[in-house]
Task: inverse folding
């Protein structure tokens, strides 16, 4: 029960307070749903604003984990998201055995909410050492049947709609069953038929004191089930139908109930997790009240209709789906051209605006594949799954080649879902957001009291594409620390910190460093997922495929080796770095480090500059008669002493521009841009930095490698092989997406998903023969 004030505005105010916090949903396009040990899981993650379904511009930290069936964590990663998109890979290595695994993706912020905004999906792993063959499993003839009244109640004397869910022992829908509904006198009341996913509906004029039985035959076996929902003598129920462009709601009661609720103010709300509309409902003399809603005036996707009684208690809830306003993009045509031993395929998307950010991920699999049995696509997971509590089998069916029949079938499905994922108990009770929003890694550098001076300058060196940062710390502050925010460090990198000593030289910082987050947060999700429909459709020809498995298992991926001379490597790097730059590039190599101790010496001999030494301190003075501006990792350095005596061992390359063409200042001395490198230099020099390996860092993007198989034309490869995976593609200026793959020996299917036009969705399958 809900103890609420008798205030009609209370529902709206409490809901708005609950919904005002930002929400995001995450979806992962996996390249397959079944993997052979030794393959790689490829994925593209799409993080979208839940309210407008556009790519998130704020999220950067996404956690991805894989658990076994005992909820043991097998793999976990921190992934960097940029403009709502990220891609990565997970190796199916020795940590995996045969079985089903759960892959999750979530942000720390998502842990604050009950709705399923996170991603969760089941995948199948096959270990050749454990499974020498793949056999079709015998299907047990056992059925679970549920009969669920629309709105949650059967009311006496009223025609109630009853949703039907028929599932087999594995949780998959039992297709195309025809059933009969009889009363306790074995009198036929009505008949029904479920669809291919085991979902249906029938009307029932229910009466107290009566019982109802559903009977049907499946696989030559007769079944009989009781309708367990009790028939209530008092209450209100509802029925919702969509006609043309309207949703029509009938609120119904009976004579006994009317005497109790007559004149009392009820409220009916419609919300979608964002906006909420309220309609007052008062039963006077009529037993049925009709309300109609224009579908163009309600939100696209799932809408949640809730009826509240005069005490502001929710008594009925019904979900319905509005297809209006959902923008689905399909490719116009698919063409293929052979180029040497490769195939270049072009998908044309005329509806995509190339000037607006877009991303398309494509999994290329054999046309006869059995390894892509995913239940969701990007639209069903974004618009449907976050709003329901139940498990939806083959949810993508309702959004592929949409027809009037599929719209009715989806509505029948939502009849069976009961209460939505938005819990009114949670909405009515003020919640505390315990898990903060994360953007990058935050470093807290604590200063050792024994080593501090009155004022110290510390340098956090550049890492990846982030600039170096300098911190002047006033140690009179009792905090004795400074904070570095939005740090993006990859797993193979370290954080390098230095302190500027009295001689204006860099030395190890001697700080105690803390990082947040420092581990992947645990997230116990509910079990709202269903295993890929695997065991039903396997090839008879796969009974003896151990040979193919062995070839897969013995395949060893070798690291790429590139052998060049020292001179050519420096020359190539200089040439590459010079592209788009106005200054002259001077790359530092091992010979330079040996020959020149400091950056100043290097610039004098390599860049024809001058220097002056006073009291043992060398300063780069002028060339062309002026004083140059100094930048370290693209950050302006005002205290030139920081870099004049910088050991050359920490310099990657220098750009010298004799004229300040950007007119940064009135200086006639030009610009010197210094780019540091702290991870590839020898360690036998004077230590200038304190290096930290963070306990948790971002997983670097890795190229997806297609495994080698024993054969490329047998049933094993056709059923379970991988041809390629392209995680981050975009259209060119005429709307073409190019997918280039190695020439396959068999026909292929492209499984395509993506986002475009700041709110449009792409999901389709394209089959093509390339021989």
Result:
């Amino acid at each position: 029960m809900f103890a609420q004030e008798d205030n009609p505005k209370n529902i709206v105010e409490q809901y708005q307070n609950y919904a005002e916090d930002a929400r995001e949903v995450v979806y992962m396009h996996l390249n397959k749903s079944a993997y052979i040990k030794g393959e790689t899981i490829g994925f593209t993650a799409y993080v979208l604003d839940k309210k407008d379904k556009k790519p998130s511009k704020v999220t950067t930290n996404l956690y991805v984990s894989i658990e076994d069936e005992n909820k043991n964590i097998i793999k976990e990663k921190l992934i960097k998201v940029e403009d709502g998109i990220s891609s990565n890979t997970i190796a199916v290595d020795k940590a995996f055995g045969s079985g089903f695994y759960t892959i999750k993706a979530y942000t720390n912020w998502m842990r604050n909410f009950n709705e399923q905004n996170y991603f969760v999906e089941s995948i199948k792993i096959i270990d050749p050492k454990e499974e020498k063959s793949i056999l079709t499993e015998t299907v047990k003839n056992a059925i679970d049947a549920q009969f669920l009244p629309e709105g949650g109640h059967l009311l006496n004397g009223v025609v109630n709609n009853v949703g039907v869910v028929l599932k087999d022992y594995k949780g998959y829908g039992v297709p195309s069953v025809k059933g009969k509904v009889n009363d306790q006198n074995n009198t036929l009341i009505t008949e029904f038929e479920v669809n291919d996913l085991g979902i249906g509906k029938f009307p029932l004029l229910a009466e107290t004191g009566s019982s109802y039985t559903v009977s049907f035959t499946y696989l030559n076996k007769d079944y009989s089930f009781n309708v367990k929902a009790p028939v209530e003598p008092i209450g209100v129920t509802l029925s919702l139908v969509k006609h043309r462009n309207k949703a029509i709601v009938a609120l119904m009661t009976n004579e006994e109930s009317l005497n109790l609720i007559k004149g009392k103010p009820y409220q009916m709300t419609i919300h979608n997790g964002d906006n909420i509309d309220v309609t007052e409902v008062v039963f006077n003399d009529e037993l049925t009240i009709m309300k109609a809603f224009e579908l163009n005036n309600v939100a696209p996707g799932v809408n949640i209709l809730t009826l509240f009684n005069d005490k502001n208690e929710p008594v009925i809830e019904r979900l319905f789906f509005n297809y209006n306003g959902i923008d689905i993009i399909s490719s116009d045509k698919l063409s293929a051209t052979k180029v040497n031993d490769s195939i270049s395929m072009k998908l044309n998307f005329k509806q995509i605006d190339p000037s607006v950010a877009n991303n398309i991920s494509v999994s290329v699999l054999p046309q006869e594949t059995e390894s892509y049995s995913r239940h969701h696509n990007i639209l069903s997971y974004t618009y449907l799954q976050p709003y329901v509590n139940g498990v939806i089998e083959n949810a993508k069916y309702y959004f592929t080649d949409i027809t009037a029949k599929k719209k009715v079938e989806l509505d029948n499905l939502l009849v069976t879902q009961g209460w939505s994922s938005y819990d009114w108990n949670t909405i009515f009770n003020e919640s505390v957001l315990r898990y903060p929003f994360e953007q990058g890694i935050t470093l807290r550098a604590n200063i050792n009291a024994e080593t501090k001076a009155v004022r110290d300058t510390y340098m956090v060196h550049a890492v990846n594409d982030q600039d170096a940062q300098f911190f002047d710390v006033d140690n009179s502050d009792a905090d004795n620390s400074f904070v570095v925010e939005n740090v993006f460090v990859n797993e193979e990198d370290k954080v390098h910190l230095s302190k500027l000593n009295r001689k204006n030289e860099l030395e190890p910082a001697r700080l105690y460093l803390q990082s947040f987050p420092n581990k992947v947060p645990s997230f116990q999700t509910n079990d709202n997922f269903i295993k890929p429909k695997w065991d039903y459709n396997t090839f008879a020809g796969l009974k003896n495929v151990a040979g193919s498995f062995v070839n897969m298992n013995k395949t060893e991926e070798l690291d790429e080796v590139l052998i060049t001379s020292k001179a050519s490597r420096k020359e190539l790097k200089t040439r590459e770095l010079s592209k788009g730059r106005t200054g002259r590039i001077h790359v530092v190599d091992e010979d330079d480090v040996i020959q020149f101790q400091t950056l100043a010496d290097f610039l004098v001999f390599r860049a024809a500059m001058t220097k002056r030494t006073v009291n043992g301190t060398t300063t780069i003075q002028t060339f062309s008669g002026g004083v140059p501006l100094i930048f370290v990792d693209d950050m302006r350095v005002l205290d030139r002493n920081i870099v004049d005596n910088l050991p050359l061992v920490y310099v990657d390359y220098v750009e010298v521009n004799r004229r300040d063409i950007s007119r940064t200042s009135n200086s006639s001395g030009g610009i010197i841009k210094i780019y540091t490198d702290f991870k590839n230099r020898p360690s036998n020099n004077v230590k200038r930095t304190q290096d930290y390996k963070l306990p948790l860092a971002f997983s670097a993007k890795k190229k997806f490698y297609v495994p080698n198989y024993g054969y490329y034309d047998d049933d094993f490869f056709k059923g379970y092989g991988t041809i390629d995976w392209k995680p981050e593609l975009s259209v060119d200026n005429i709307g073409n997406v190019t997918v280039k793959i190695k020439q396959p020996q068999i026909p292929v299917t492209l499984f395509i998903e993506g986002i475009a036009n700041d709110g449009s969705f792409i999901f389709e399958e394209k089959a093509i023969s390339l021989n």
